[in-house]
Amino acid sequence: MNKTAYARSIALAATAMSCGATAALAEDITLRIGAGHPNGPAVYVADVADFFVPEVKRRVAEETEHTIEFVEGYGGAIAGVAETLESVQNGILDIGAYCICFEPAKLFLHNFPYYTPFGPQDAAQGMQAVRATYDAVPWLTEQFTAEYDQVLLGLHGWDNYHLGTTDPWETVADLQGVKIGGAGPNLPWLEFAGAVPVQSTLPDGYLSLQTGVYNGWLMFPSAYLGFKFYEPSPYYTLIGFGAMGVNALTMNQRKFDSLPEDVRQIIVEVGRAYEDQSGASNNARQAAGLEGLREVGAEIRELSAEARAGWAQSLVSFPNQQAKEADSRGMPGTEVMKTYIAAVAATGYEMPVEYTVE
């Protein structure tokens, strides 16, 4: 073989090896992603389906040699609202989105926005305070990994909580003895009114209101409209318990670690982008929800400022109570509650009462 032919054969072999290496490194990735709530009425799930999933797919296709597809299972198709954390932990789901409110034991302290009711009315402002708290207290993020083998990709929330009822009411006293549904951490809000709290979930709400299991729902406008609760329960009173940043998007740690580094980086970045857009997303859906409720004939009224102030005052010790409970469970309850209250103040929002954590 002459020198020219030899050099050409070496070059061709190198090219073939290079192409083979690229092909070997490229992966076709499939991830299972899901939530207990349905896509559409639940904003945080809609943002998973309409923002997170397509954005990850787009960036992986454009920026890496890999391909990625998602098997999507929302509305409890893979895991229910109280099963998603565990399903991500054991690998049934690779990525799960869920309300922390349905993990009152495992994620007790992460429900801290519920423990300071009448907080920010604006969802973007509320998410700003929640993110500041997570950044200041790393334990909140680390617990997902240390105890549940998950990576926290991003946070999300609910829009401002109000109260819908099957019957009209004029004063807080009218709620005495009325059964009202809620997610769990928010049920103590009802003590001032003397209402009877009932633990429930969004998928159960319509039938429960229709059949009288309870006669009211602590609920934000986006879901009250989306789940059509206005049909059995047409009276919607604006109270302003606050927008709550209590939804999480997490990924199984083992699955995360198994992915190529460039794909992991994209998933982390899109997870934070999912969080960053959540406040504006919830604000838009709240406005649309209120407008939609008016259009379908729901009767919307607003609680008086005096009654609202009295309601808030009745819960003035709630943050300190929950902080001490978390402390007793070996969690940094006092630190988290103090940090969050300060973070809310830093946004410029003024609580209707002064919450003090000792």
CATH superfamily: Bacterial extracellular solute-binding protein, family 7
- Our Rg estimate from Cα atoms comes to 24 Å
The tally of helices reads: 13
**Domains, number:** 1
Instruction: Assign an overall shape.
Output: globular
- Helix content bin: 40-55%
Mean pLDDT: 93
Specify the CATH class: Alpha Beta
CATH architecture: 3-Layer(aba) Sandwich
The SS-based structural class is: alpha/beta
How far is the N terminus from the C terminus?
87 Å
Order of helices and strands: HEHEHEHHEEEHEHEHHHEHHH
The number of distinct β-strands equals: 9
Quaternary: single chain
Give a quick account of the main beta sheet: strands, pairing sense, barrel closure: 7 strands, mixed
Task: Tell me the CATH topology.
Answer: D-Maltodextrin-Binding Protein, domain 2
Summarize the structure.
It holds the Pfam family DctP. With 358 residues, this protein is of the alpha/beta class.
